[in-house]
């Protein structure tokens, strides 16, 4: 054993990191305390920047690459590591801050390098972490909020995206030596890191605001697509300050106008709006010089689905090319309509009931999704809504192609029931092929464009609801893989739907 005293400092450090470092063999060696106290030299990019954290690696120069460095949020990333020893355990970590800057989102995936000393998330399985298996975008979609000393337990509603869609989201990737647990924060294992930007807008896009009656509108126009008129999409959104989706649509070459109705039934008066304001919104979009008025589609999200269907149902003469709806309903939820003949279409006081129950349920510690779903218990959705048929949007005159998405465990809106009722109505009218209905298990309520949701309360596990198995899929408290796959599939289908029906070649055919 005496010959071990002649080991160089480099050899001692290698031996200390070997799996047999805790064996009886190593404990019998006599290593000088001076050698144990020496710190390893910085390597790779850490040598160039002394301010970066130290690396414990000395024999090789590992690299972590994530490309492209700047991309849209719905673009795939190539995440790879190289320069590792064969069979070496490492952790790939992704980290970002919330829009308010006081909540951190973190994901970690544990990998083992192949015989070439490389790792690719699109090829190699993640053994444990916030996700598992082969998933090239696992570090992105599985990010979840973590507790920080300044904030404590983060809010389940914290957003990773800024309210302003022109602001990008910066994500920092780190390559860590060994398999690091999700709750561990160790700064002595950093090997390499890099940053990427994820954007909702790219290219030259102009934004302008408009006011049309009770509706506030925002128009996004791509200005670098030439002088020819472009296809357009009229978006009825249900959430305030949410302009990310139309900004993303504009980045894909569409003129997109998003609307938000400022009239709310909580005021106690003026809870009916003239339905002709829907036609006015369509006219405002069609009159824009950059819009091809023969290639206009409609999009609805949440409560906005009933408004989108109402536009097509009450004004069948408009040349709408297609209509898509995401996790919405077919009845009026916030206000009713004054029809052209002077009659009224009523609404179900969905959110009024929520506000009345809010104080009681807060004392019980019940979350918002349960409060909304509880309105139909113990009577059920069908018995409650069918007693007021006047609240439903008339679909008998809707002739445009429809693409609808519904989650089976949606706790905010009964989208599953409404979409299946719409399917039955079209089948009875002999127009079943007019609708493509896509249903998801374990997707929750909020389906955003790919990989930007990161809101655990949207996919909360709720027992007793069909398809609500999301909670069983969570690994370290993050988003579920079912939610992620639903978002990815929904967005790809939506883009393909609009590109097909709003393309010039399809129109001319």
What characteristics describe this protein?
509 residues, disordered N terminus, 7-stranded mixed β-sheet, single chain, 8-stranded mixed β-sheet, alpha/beta, 21 strands, 24% helix, 14 helices
Question: How does this model look, in words?
Answer:
The protein is α/β, with parallel strands linked by helices. The protein has helices at residues 9-16, 24-27, 33-37, 44-48, 138-141, 244-251, 276-286, 304-314, 350-364, 368-373, 381-385, 415-428, 481-501, 504-508; strands spanning 63-67, 70-72, 78-82, 89-97, 104-112, 119-120, 128-129, 144-146, 169-177, 190-199, 205-212, 215-222, 230-236, 255-261, 272-274, 291-301, 320-326, 336-338, 344-345, 402-407, 435-440. The strands form four sheets. It has an eight-stranded mixed beta sheet with strand order 11-12-14-13-16-17-20-21, with helices on both faces. Strands 2, 4, 5, 7, 8, 9 and 10 form a seven-stranded mixed beta sheet that branches. It has a three-stranded antiparallel beta sheet with strand order 1-3-6, with no helix packed on it. Helix 6 links the parallel strand 13 and strand 14 (255-261). The radius of gyration is 27 Å and the shape is elongated. The model is unreliable at 1-58, 357-370 and 457-478 (pLDDT under 50).
Low-pLDDT stretches are 1-58, 357-370, 457-478
Globular, elongated, flat, extended or rod-shaped: what is the shape? elongated
Distance between the termini: 85 Å
Spatial strand arrangement across the major sheet: 11-12-14-13-16-17-20-21
Number of helices: 14
Q: Sheet with the most strands? A: 8 strands, mixed
Strand content: 15-25%
Helix fraction? 10-25%
What gyration radius follows from the Cα positions, in whole Å? 27 Å
Count of β-strands: 21
Q: Structural class per helix/strand content?
A: alpha/beta
Mean pLDDT: 76
């Amino acid at each position: 054993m005496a010959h071990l005293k002649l080991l160089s400092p480099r050899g001692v450090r290698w031996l200390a990191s070997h799996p047999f470092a805790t064996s009886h063999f190593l404990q019998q060696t006599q290593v000088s305390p001076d050698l144990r106290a020496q710190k390893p030299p910085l390597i790779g990019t850490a040598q160039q920047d002394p301010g970066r954290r130290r690396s414990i690696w000395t024999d090789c120069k590992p690299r972590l690459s994530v490309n492209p460095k700047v991309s849209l949020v719905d673009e795939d990333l190539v995440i790879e590591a190289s320069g590792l020893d064969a069979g070496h355990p490492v952790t790939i970590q992704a980290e970002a801050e919330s829009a308010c800057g006081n909540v951190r989102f973190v994901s970690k995936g544990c990998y083992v390098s192949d015989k070439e000393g490389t790792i690719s998330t699109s090829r190699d399985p993640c053994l444990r972490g916030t996700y598992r298996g082969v998933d090239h975008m696992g570090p992105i979609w599985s990010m979840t909020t973590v507790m920080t000393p300044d904030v404590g337990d983060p809010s389940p509603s914290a957003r990773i995206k800024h309210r302003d869609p022109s602001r990008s989201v910066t994500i920092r990737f780190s390559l860590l030596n060994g398999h690091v647990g999700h709750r561990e924060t160790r700064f002595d294992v950093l090997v390499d890191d890099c940053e990427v930007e994820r954007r909702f807008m790219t290219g030259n896009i102009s934004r302008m605001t408009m006011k049309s009656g009770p509706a506030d509108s925002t128009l996004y126009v791509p200005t670098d697509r030439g002088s020819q008129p472009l296809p357009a999409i009229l978006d009825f959104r249900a959430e305030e300050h949410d302009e990310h989706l139309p900004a993303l649509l504009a980045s894909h070459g569409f003129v997109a106008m998003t609307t938000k109705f400022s009239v709310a039934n909580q005021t106690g008066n003026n809870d009916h709006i003239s339905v002709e304001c829907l036609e006015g919104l369509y006219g405002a979009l069609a009159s824009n010089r950059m819009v091809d008025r023969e290639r206009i589609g409609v999009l609805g999200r949440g409560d906005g689905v009933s408004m989108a269907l109402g536009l097509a149902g009450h004004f069948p003469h408009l040349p709408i090319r297609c209509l898509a709806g995401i996790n919405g309903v077919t009845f009026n939820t916030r206000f009713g309509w004054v029809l052209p003949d002077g009659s009224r279409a009523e609404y179900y006081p969905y959110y009024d009931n929520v506000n009345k129950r809010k104080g009681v349920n807060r004392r019980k510690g019940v979350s918002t999704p349960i409060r909304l779903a509880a309105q139909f218990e113990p009577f059920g959705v069908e018995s409650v809504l069918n007693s007021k048929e006047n609240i439903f949007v008339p679909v008998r005159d809707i002739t445009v192609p429809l693409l609808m998405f519904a989650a089976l465990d949606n706790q905010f809106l009964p989208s599953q029931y409404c979409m299946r009722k719409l399917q039955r109505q079209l089948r009875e009218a002999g127009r079943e092929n007019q609708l493509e209905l896509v249903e998801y298990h374990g997707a929750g309520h909020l389906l955003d464009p790919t990989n930007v949701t990161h809101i655990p309360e949207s996919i909360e596990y709720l027992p007793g609801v069909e398809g609500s198995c999301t909670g069983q899929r969570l690994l370290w408290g993050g988003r579920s893989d079912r939610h992620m796959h639903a978002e990815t599939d929904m967005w790809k289908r939506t883009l393909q739907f609009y590109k097909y029906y709003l393309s010039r070649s399809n129109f001319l055919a």
